Amino acid sequence: MVFMGITGCQPTVTAVAPPPTVLSITMITPSPHHPITPSPHHLLTPTSPPPSPPPPPTAVPTSTTTPTPTNTPTPTATFTATPVGACANRILADEDLWAVVTQHYGLSRDYAPTDLVSLNDHLSNDVTLGYPIELRVMAIEPLVQMITDMQAAGLKPQILSGYRSYSAQSIAYNKWATEFPGHVNIISAPPGYSEHQLGTTIDFGSPELPLYTGDPDLQFHTYFYKTNEGIWLLANAHNYGFTLSWPLETFELTGFYYEPWHYRYVGVEMATRLREMGLSLTQYQLTNQPEPCIP
Ligand SMILES: [Zn+2]
Question: Can you give the pTM of this predicted structure?
Answer without folding.
Answer: 0.71
